[in-house]
């Protein structure tokens, strides 16, 4: 499961290395002098430690080094370290420290045997589109069949939607292949305005099944006002658990937002407090997370307010929705934290989501955004305080 498919809320969550552990709360991004080359070298070696606290502190040490010190050492580790996990984590950290050296290193490992390195390479190209890489991405499609790698590759291609070769490769993926891969393709096409595949996505949206919600929300993300009639028709035939996705899609289109927002809020409260409605809960969280990721602050607040009071197992579903929205839109989440009197319960929702989401690369991008916001904000301001709380609780 990856962030690449917001279907994390309705399919499966893959556990990743994360969790509690020994943070010195007073440590700020500026604590102490920059790490030396020797300290960075030692920290790189500890990235693969079985001890969570050791791994966490190693990453923190590297993040607090200068790019000039850390990036060549990380690049060397990616290319030559004997521990494959250290290579992977070094590449993730490098992408956040030094874009130029990261790009050079990505080009060297995009064909690596290690699935994790290839995944990071594809994620990099999603956020750094380069038309010259499209032929290589297309040629990789037949061989990339890992549930972790394939969605990242699909998103990298979707980000190149203006390139005809990418369009030709992506459109058939809506209608064929395993559902997990089709869901990733549908979501990516929605995120990157793949209107050339709208007709196929509409056909999927008409069919009951695991891809229906992905397709409905993709229609909303594509932003074509003419889709209103399609969604209105689906309201008459879709199963109850798909109705939140329709409301979410209409909100994304800017249609009758207030009434759909009220419905989503009421439905979330009902599904959280009534036994036997887990599919409906996942559906409404999926919809609110999608709209929040697109900048709807009210929908993010609805999720957070519900999550901080929810009990398990419903809390896990809401936490995933909050976490995915935060990864997709870190700035929106940070703004939400600026105005919260008690930030900790809300931030813990994100922490718990990160525990469940195998999204090292996207999490590192989130951390970069928050660190930059910390330094840019005036000392003592609500924004700096919110960023500091995120740094402390998420342990980066």
Task: Describe, in plain words, how this protein is organized in 3D.
There is one protein chain. This protein is 66% helix and 0% strand. It has 396 residues and is mainly alpha-helical. It has a domain at 1-25 and 256-396. Residues 1-27 have low confidence and may be disordered.
**Category from helices, strands and their pairing:** mainly alpha
Cα(first) to Cα(last) distance is: 23 Å
**Number of helical regions:** 22
**Biggest sheet: strands, sense, closure?**
none
C-alpha-based Rg, rounded: 21 Å
Low-confidence stretches: 1-27
- Percentage of helical residues? 55-70%
What sequence of helices (H) and strands (E) makes up the elements? HHHHHHHHHHHHHHHHHHHHHH
Average pLDDT rating: 92
By DSSP, the count of extended strands is 0
Estimate what percentage of residues fall within beta strands.
under 5%
Overall body shape: globular
TL;DR of this structure?
The protein contains 22 helices and no strands.
Describe how the helices and strands are arranged.
Elements: H1 37-46, H2 52-63, H3 67-80, H4 84-97, H5 99-109, H6 115-127, H7 134-140, H8 149-158, H9 164-170, H10 179-191, H11 198-205, H12 212-222, H13 228-237, H14 243-252, H15 257-273, H16 278-293, H17 297-309, H18 314-328, H19 330-338, H20 344-356, H21 360-376, H22 382-394
Helix pairs in contact: 1-2, 1-3, 3-4, 3-5, 4-5, 4-6, 4-21, 5-6, 6-8, 8-10, 10-12, 11-12, 12-14, 13-14, 14-15, 14-16, 15-16, 15-17, 16-17, 16-18, 17-18, 18-19, 18-20, 19-22, 20-22, 21-22
């Amino acid at each position: 499961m990856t962030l690449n498919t917001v279907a994390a809320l309705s399919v499966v969550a893959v556990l990743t290395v994360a969790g509690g552990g020994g943070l010195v709360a007073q440590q700020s991004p500026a604590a102490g002098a920059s790490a030396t080359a020797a300290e960075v070298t030692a920290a790189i070696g500890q990235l693969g430690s079985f001890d969570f606290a050791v791994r966490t502190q190693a990453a923190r040490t590297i993040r607090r080094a200068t790019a000039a010190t850390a990036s060549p050492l990380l690049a060397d580790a990616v290319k030559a370290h004997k521990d494959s996990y250290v290579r992977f984590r070094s590449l993730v950290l490098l992408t956040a420290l030094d874009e130029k050296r990261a790009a050079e290193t990505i080009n060297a490992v995009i064909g690596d045997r290690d699935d994790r390195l290839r995944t990071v390479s594809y994620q990099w190209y999603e956020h750094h589109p380069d038309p010259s890489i499209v032929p290589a991405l297309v040629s990789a499609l037949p061989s990339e069949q890992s549930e972790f790698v394939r969605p990242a590759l699909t998103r990298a291609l979707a980000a190149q939607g203006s390139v005809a070769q990418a369009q030709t490769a992506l459109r058939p993926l809506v209608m064929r292949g395993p559902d997990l891969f089709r869901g990733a393709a549908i979501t990516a096409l929605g995120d990157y305005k793949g209107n050339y595949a709208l007709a196929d996505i509409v056909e999927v949206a008409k069919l009951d099944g695991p891809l229906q919600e992905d397709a409905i929300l993709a229609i909303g993300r594509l932003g074509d006002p003419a889709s209103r009639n399609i969604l209105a028709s689906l309201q008459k035939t879709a199963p109850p658990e798909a109705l939140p996705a329709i409301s979410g899609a209409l909100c994304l289109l800017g249609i009758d937002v207030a009434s759909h927002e009220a419905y989503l809020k009421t439905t979330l409260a009902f599904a959280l407090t009534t036994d036997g409605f887990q599919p409906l809960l996942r559906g409404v969280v999926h919809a609110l997370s999608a709209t929040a990721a697109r900048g709807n602050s009210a929908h993010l607040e609805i999720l957070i307010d519900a999550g901080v009071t929810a009990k398990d197992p419903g809390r896990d579903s809401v936490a995933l929705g909050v976490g995915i929205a935060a990864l997709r839109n870190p700035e929106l989440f940070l703004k939400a934290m600026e105005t919260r009197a008690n930030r900790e319960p809300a931030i813990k929702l994100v922490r718990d989501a990160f525990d469940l989401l195998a999204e090292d690369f996207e999490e590192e991008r989130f951390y970069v955004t928050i660190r930059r916001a910390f330094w840019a904000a005036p000392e003592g301001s609500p924004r700096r305080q919110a960023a500091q709380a995120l740094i402390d609780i998420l342990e980066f």
